[in-house]
Amino acid sequence: MSTTFTIDTSTSRAHPTPAPMKRLTVPAIQRRKVDGTTAEPLVMLTAYTVRMAQLLDPHCDLLLVGDSLGQVVYGLPSTLPVTLDMMIAHGAAVVRGSYHAVVAVDMPFGSYEASPEHAFASAARVLAETGCAAIKMEGGAAMAPTIRFLTERGIPVMAHVGLTPQAINALGGYGARGRGDAEEAKILADAEAVAAAGAFSTVVEGVVEPLARRIAESSAIPVIGIGASAACDGQVLVAEDMLGLFERTPRFVKRFDDMAGRISDAAARYAAEVRARTFPGDEQVYAVKG
């Protein structure tokens, strides 16, 4: 048995309830790719809260607690100010709100680059304090020794190559990567290096389609695309982007809903009823029991 959190409809609060142990595992994710092919693509979305995890979990193979929470939740200009404590707090919430998907937590900028030992200390905290199954870290060949160090010590690692937002100052922007021969060769080498070092999967972000397809076809581990190729072994999006909660939609995102519009409309109706004194009505107030 495992423990997940459900919403008590009488109080609208989350309470732990036992649930059958149905959670996927890292080895199960790896086994989805057989002889270079993933018959059923992997589904991954970001989640940062208990309630969002509850809603997304039944539909996803993996939930990523991304450092994108810096922008999505906290309104920060980039992912760089995100701290390890922030990732742990949100990671623990997502684990509590899920029981099916593999939960991976991003390692924030500055928490793993100094040395493999530094990365291990940070990653061990994340796993111990959140209950997640894996961590994700950005970087290719340069991070391969760290990936090997962690995986040899029992910490599953999801790698991340191509456009790496934590390196935005060095990259100079969020444009697609792999357009030139030199950059294409580097990204290919990065993907090969992280797989050889023991990563169980790789996120390939913002990479031109032919290159992303080539990485997916050549890699022995599942390749999860974001702004990459439908040929990848799976896809990931920021859930809030997919739901249409922001005015700007990145090129690589498809809006599956207009939640921003629906929330705005609901708030407008609420405001109108409050101002007209039609809310609360008889159904929402308590009568004296006689």
General description of the model:
There is one protein chain. By secondary structure, this protein is an alpha/beta fold. It has a single domain, classed as Alpha-Beta Barrel (TIM Barrel), CATH 3.20.20. It contains eleven helices and twelve strands. The longest helix has 17 residues, at 259-275. It starts with a strand and ends in a 15-residue tail after the last helix.
Low-pLDDT runs: none
CATH class: Alpha Beta
Average of the residue pLDDT scores? 93
Largest sheet: 8 strands, parallel, barrel
Broad structural category: alpha/beta
The percentage helix is: 25-40%
- Beta-strand percent range: 15-25%
SSE arrangement:
Elements: E1 2-8, E2 13-19, H1 26-31, E3 33-34, E4 37-38, E5 42-46, H2 50-56, E6 62-65, H3 69-72, H4 84-96, E7 102-106, H5 116-130, E8 134-138, H6 144-151, E9 157-162, H7 168-171, H8 181-196, E10 201-205, H9 209-218, E11 223-226, E12 234-237, H10 239-242, H11 259-275
Parallel strand pairs: 5-6, 5-12, 6-7, 7-8, 8-9, 9-10, 10-11, 11-12
Antiparallel strand pairs: 1-2, 3-4
Helix pairs in contact: 2-4, 4-5, 5-6
